Amino acid sequence: MQSFSEFLSELTTGFTPVIGGDYSHKDYTYIDLSENNRDLLKLEVASSEAFSIFISEFLRNREATAAYGGYNELRTLYNRSQLFNNSEANRNIHIGLDVWVPEFSEIISPLDGKIHSFQDNDNFGDYGPTIILEHNLHNRKFYTLYGHLSRKSLDGLIAGKEVKAGEKIAELGDFNENGDYAPHLHFQIMEDLQGKTGDYPGVVKKEDLDMYLKNCPDPNLLLKI
Predict the structure, then answer these.
(1) So what's the pLDDT on residue 224?
(2) Ranges for the M23ase beta-sheet core domain (predicted)?
(3) Sign of the CA dihedral 31, 49, 85, 217?
(4) % of the chain beyond a pLDDT of 90
(5) What pLDDT shows up at residue 46?
(6) Residue 53 belongs to what H/E stretch?
(7) How far apart are the first and last CA of the chain?
(8) Distance (Å, rounded) from C-alpha 188 to C-alpha 172?
(9) pLDDT digit string (tens) for 78-124?
(10) Which of 46, 181, 169, 171 is nearest to 127 (CA)?
(11) 87 CB contacts (<8 Å, ≥6 apart)?
């Protein structure tokens, strides 16, 4: 049987946007936010304002308007939040794809699907408002997650509502409502939601990594940024 990763890579033939508006493929640049990025050592990562400035300067230097990256990336920036950095487990490996664009940017569905669930995960350092879509394509069911949205994005949502590829489903939130981050989209693909609704781990500990990477392949297999 075809693996889930192979299935995803064959769903699209080229760049498939998840950010609406005038962004094209050439507007994106890769950013490394792992522990290996020495520029982060100079940054007060506990400050969402400082991080926003860092992202803006990075994009200006690269002559780009959107940054992406983060899949299977070991990050120290989660140390600021007890949600990840606690006595039970140090969760610090990011398993989604982040796309860094300004607050209130339009978020669009890359595929046909329907709203599975949604909720405001309002812990400090969490997703904030979150939407999960369910997709049934070529006799295969899977899910996509959109985190760090605006609270307005959840108004009037109904589970089961159908969405089309390219349709606006949300807007990005600012740091006051997105879990206290510089504005960005956390985009993640899950083959199995494991019974969860409106939420699914996007940062995991090393001991669980193999399971999560199998269930949550690289979103760039689909988006091809």
Answers:
(1) 98
(2) 93-192
(3) negative
(4) 76
(5) 58
(6) helix 48-62
(7) 27
(8) 15
(9) 554 444 444 455 768 999 999 999 999 999 999 999 999 999 999 88
(10) 181
(11) none
Q: Name residue 186's amino acid.
A: H
pLDDT value, residue 42:
64
pTM listed for this prediction? 0.93
**Which residue has 């300067």 as its token pair?**
57
The conformation of residue 172, written as its DSSP 8-state character, comes to: B
**Residue 224 backbone class (left: φ over 0; alpha: ψ -120 to 50; beta: rest):** left
| Inter-CA distances, 119 with 106, 148, 213, Å | 18, 11, 24
**CATH number for region 4-9+21-219:** 2.70.70.10
Partners of 149 in the β-ladder: 172
Q: Is 223 exposed, middle or buried (0-12, 13-18, 19+ CB in 10 A)?
A: buried
**Per-domain boundaries in the chain:** 4-9+21-219
Please state the separation of Cα 214 from the chain's center in Å.
17
